[in-house]
Amino acid sequence: MSRIEEQESLSKIVGVVVRSLTRHSDPRGWLMELWRQDQLPQDFWPQMTYISQTAPGVARGPHEHVDQADYFCFLGPGTFRLHLWDNRPPSTSYERYEVFELGEEQPAAVIIPAGVVHAYQNISRGPGWVINCPNRLYRGEGYAEEVDEIRHEDDPQSPFQLGRAR
Questions:
Q1: pLDDT tens, position by position, for the chain (166 residues)?
Q2: Would you say the C-alpha torsion 133, 135, 139, 143 has a positive or negative sign?
Q3: Domains of the chain
Q4: One Pfam family this chain carries (predicted)?
Q5: What's the CA gap between 146 and 41, in Å, rounded?
Q6: pTM of this prediction?
Q7: Helices (H) and strands (E) in the chain, counts
């Protein structure tokens, strides 16, 4: 059993890990560990990191990756509704749909393996931040590759709609 499988996860989708993050506070402010090399199999080690800000009510996705795994950190400001659909036919959780509310009140790190369709929507009154530490470089080294993404959000016939299971 790998270290990732040993981690307690709130998700029942195979390979998805939803892990609570701990905010360590003192009079100076707070600190939160987002990922540790000793808690993550090498296949999921980040190759880059970025932060995005999402306006209230706005959704990003649904989309999926062919090879990339995302490592989202929802820690605030803001709260997000995360939607996950297992789109991997060989998976024992194929077609499973889950929704989580994560962020300021419930900080969490989420590993989303390739083939799991995902979207998140800012359900806060103000802007929200998400940090992502994917295991692949966006568009490859030197931005020389195609984007590893299958976008479903522009297809009105897509079975992957926010708030609706397949």
A1: 344 444 567 899 999 999 999 999 999 999 999 988 988 889 999 999 999 999 999 999 999 999 999 999 999 999 999 999 999 999 999 999 999 999 999 999 999 999 999 999 999 999 999 999 999 999 999 999 999 999 999 888 999 988 655 5
A2: positive
A3: 3-22+37-142 (2.60.120.10)
A4: dTDP_sugar_isom
A5: 26
A6: 0.90
A7: 1, 12
